[in-house]
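User: My instructor asked us to take a sequence, write out its structure as C-alpha coordinates, and then describe one feature of it. I'm not sure where to start. Here is the sequence I was given:
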Amino acid sequence: GCALEACDRFVRMRDAAGATDKVSVIMFDHGVTTALNAADLHAELITDLVRTSHWSYGGTNFTGAFGAAEQVIRRDVNGLPFLIMFLTDGVGNNIGLDSIVDRLRQNPDVSMKALSFGDGCDTGYLTNLARKFGENGEYLAAIDGVQLVENFEATAAELSHTGRRNM
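Assistant: Let's start with the prediction itself. The C-alpha coordinates for your sequence are:
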Protein backbone atom coordinates (compact mmCIF):
# COMPACT_ATOMS: atom_id res chain seq x y z
CA GLY A 1 0.00 0.00 0.00
CA CYS A 2 2.72 2.50 0.93
CA ALA A 3 4.70 1.71 -2.21
CA LEU A 4 1.72 2.36 -4.46
CA GLU A 5 0.86 5.53 -2.55
CA ALA A 6 4.43 6.75 -3.12
CA CYS A 7 4.18 5.90 -6.83
CA ASP A 8 0.85 7.71 -7.00
CA ARG A 9 2.34 10.88 -5.48
CA PHE A 10 5.27 10.71 -7.92
CA VAL A 11 2.95 10.37 -10.93
CA ARG A 12 0.61 13.13 -9.76
CA MET A 13 3.50 15.53 -9.19
CA ARG A 14 4.98 14.82 -12.61
CA ASP A 15 1.55 15.24 -14.22
CA ALA A 16 0.97 18.55 -12.39
CA ALA A 17 4.38 19.74 -13.66
CA GLY A 18 3.23 19.14 -17.24
CA ALA A 19 5.62 16.25 -17.87
CA THR A 20 4.96 13.85 -20.72
CA ASP A 21 6.57 10.82 -19.12
CA LYS A 22 6.01 7.21 -20.04
CA VAL A 23 5.58 5.08 -16.93
CA SER A 24 6.34 1.41 -16.42
CA VAL A 25 5.64 -0.39 -13.16
CA ILE A 26 7.31 -3.72 -12.49
CA MET A 27 6.03 -5.58 -9.46
CA PHE A 28 8.26 -8.29 -8.09
CA ASP A 29 8.21 -10.84 -5.31
CA HIS A 30 9.24 -14.44 -6.03
CA GLY A 31 8.10 -13.68 -9.59
CA VAL A 32 7.96 -10.58 -11.77
CA THR A 33 5.00 -8.82 -13.41
CA THR A 34 5.15 -5.80 -15.67
CA ALA A 35 1.96 -4.09 -14.49
CA LEU A 36 2.40 -1.02 -16.73
CA ASN A 37 4.61 -0.83 -19.79
CA ALA A 38 5.40 2.64 -21.15
CA ALA A 39 1.95 3.96 -20.26
CA ASP A 40 1.23 7.63 -20.90
CA LEU A 41 1.46 9.72 -17.77
CA HIS A 42 -1.82 10.95 -16.31
CA ALA A 43 -2.87 11.80 -12.76
CA GLU A 44 -5.03 8.69 -12.22
CA LEU A 45 -2.53 6.20 -13.64
CA ILE A 46 -1.66 4.44 -10.37
CA THR A 47 -5.21 4.71 -8.98
CA ASP A 48 -6.50 2.99 -12.14
CA LEU A 49 -3.81 0.32 -11.82
CA VAL A 50 -4.76 -0.43 -8.20
CA ARG A 51 -8.44 -0.72 -9.17
CA THR A 52 -7.77 -3.25 -11.92
CA SER A 53 -4.92 -5.36 -10.55
CA HIS A 54 -4.19 -7.70 -7.67
CA TRP A 55 -0.84 -9.10 -6.63
CA SER A 56 0.17 -11.78 -4.16
CA TYR A 57 3.37 -11.09 -2.30
CA GLY A 58 6.17 -13.31 -1.06
CA GLY A 59 9.86 -13.53 -1.78
CA THR A 60 12.15 -11.04 -3.48
CA ASN A 61 13.59 -11.42 -6.98
CA PHE A 62 15.97 -8.52 -7.72
CA THR A 63 17.37 -10.18 -10.86
CA GLY A 64 13.95 -10.68 -12.40
CA ALA A 65 12.93 -7.08 -11.64
CA PHE A 66 16.06 -5.62 -13.23
CA GLY A 67 15.71 -8.01 -16.18
CA ALA A 68 12.18 -6.73 -16.79
CA ALA A 69 13.42 -3.13 -16.51
CA GLU A 70 16.14 -3.88 -19.05
CA GLN A 71 13.51 -5.23 -21.47
CA VAL A 72 11.41 -2.06 -21.11
CA ILE A 73 14.47 0.09 -21.78
CA ARG A 74 15.53 -1.97 -24.81
CA ARG A 75 12.12 -1.43 -26.43
CA ASP A 76 12.40 2.34 -26.17
CA VAL A 77 12.56 4.02 -29.56
CA ASN A 78 12.16 7.64 -28.42
CA GLY A 79 15.55 8.12 -26.78
CA LEU A 80 13.99 9.32 -23.55
CA PRO A 81 15.89 9.22 -20.26
CA PHE A 82 15.04 6.39 -17.86
CA LEU A 83 14.79 6.55 -14.11
CA ILE A 84 14.64 3.20 -12.35
CA MET A 85 13.07 3.58 -8.89
CA PHE A 86 14.05 0.24 -7.36
CA LEU A 87 12.09 -0.23 -4.14
CA THR A 88 12.44 -3.25 -1.88
CA ASP A 89 11.57 -4.25 1.65
CA GLY A 90 13.64 -7.41 1.63
CA VAL A 91 16.81 -9.20 0.64
CA GLY A 92 16.67 -10.59 -2.86
CA ASN A 93 17.91 -13.23 -5.19
CA ASN A 94 20.85 -11.53 -6.90
CA ILE A 95 22.18 -14.37 -9.07
CA GLY A 96 22.96 -12.92 -12.50
CA LEU A 97 22.12 -9.37 -11.42
CA ASP A 98 25.62 -7.95 -11.93
CA SER A 99 25.59 -8.55 -15.69
CA ILE A 100 22.19 -6.86 -16.08
CA VAL A 101 23.28 -3.88 -13.98
CA ASP A 102 26.51 -3.60 -16.01
CA ARG A 103 24.51 -3.36 -19.24
CA LEU A 104 22.06 -0.82 -17.78
CA ARG A 105 24.72 1.46 -16.33
CA GLN A 106 26.50 1.65 -19.68
CA ASN A 107 23.52 3.59 -21.02
CA PRO A 108 24.03 7.27 -20.08
CA ASP A 109 20.26 7.83 -20.27
CA VAL A 110 19.61 5.42 -17.38
CA SER A 111 19.70 6.54 -13.77
CA MET A 112 18.68 4.51 -10.75
CA LYS A 113 17.57 5.10 -7.21
CA ALA A 114 17.72 2.12 -4.86
CA LEU A 115 15.20 2.57 -2.06
CA SER A 116 14.99 0.39 1.01
CA PHE A 117 11.71 0.31 2.89
CA GLY A 118 11.55 -0.83 6.50
CA ASP A 119 14.33 -2.51 8.41
CA GLY A 120 14.58 -5.91 6.66
CA CYS A 121 16.77 -4.81 3.75
CA ASP A 122 20.41 -5.39 3.01
CA THR A 123 21.24 -1.67 2.95
CA GLY A 124 24.90 -2.34 2.19
CA TYR A 125 23.97 -4.27 -0.95
CA LEU A 126 21.54 -1.56 -2.08
CA THR A 127 24.13 1.17 -1.44
CA ASN A 128 26.66 -0.70 -3.58
CA LEU A 129 24.03 -1.29 -6.25
CA ALA A 130 23.38 2.47 -6.48
CA ARG A 131 27.13 3.19 -6.55
CA LYS A 132 27.51 1.00 -9.65
CA PHE A 133 25.56 3.67 -11.55
CA GLY A 134 28.09 6.35 -10.54
CA GLU A 135 26.64 9.85 -10.57
CA ASN A 136 23.44 8.36 -12.05
CA GLY A 137 22.83 6.23 -8.94
CA GLU A 138 21.59 7.03 -5.47
CA TYR A 139 20.60 5.07 -2.38
CA LEU A 140 17.65 6.25 -0.27
CA ALA A 141 16.17 4.74 2.88
CA ALA A 142 12.66 4.94 4.26
CA ILE A 143 11.82 3.56 7.68
CA ASP A 144 8.08 4.13 7.26
CA GLY A 145 5.44 5.03 4.67
CA VAL A 146 5.77 8.76 5.31
CA GLN A 147 9.49 8.73 4.47
CA LEU A 148 8.82 6.57 1.43
CA VAL A 149 6.30 9.07 0.03
CA GLU A 150 8.72 11.92 0.83
CA ASN A 151 11.50 10.16 -1.13
CA PHE A 152 9.27 9.73 -4.18
CA GLU A 153 8.05 13.33 -3.96
CA ALA A 154 11.63 14.64 -3.70
CA THR A 155 12.60 12.57 -6.74
CA ALA A 156 9.66 13.90 -8.77
CA ALA A 157 10.61 17.45 -7.78
CA GLU A 158 14.26 17.06 -8.81
CA LEU A 159 13.44 15.95 -12.35
CA SER A 160 13.27 18.50 -15.11
CA HIS A 161 10.30 18.62 -17.42
CA THR A 162 12.14 16.25 -19.77
CA GLY A 163 12.70 13.64 -17.07
CA ARG A 164 16.42 14.30 -16.77
CA ARG A 165 17.81 14.86 -13.30
CA ASN A 166 18.50 18.47 -12.43
CA MET A 167 22.09 18.54 -11.20
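For the description part of your assignment, you could build on this observation: The beta strands are 22-28, 32-40, 82-88, 110-117, 137-142. Try explaining in your own words what that tells you about the chain.
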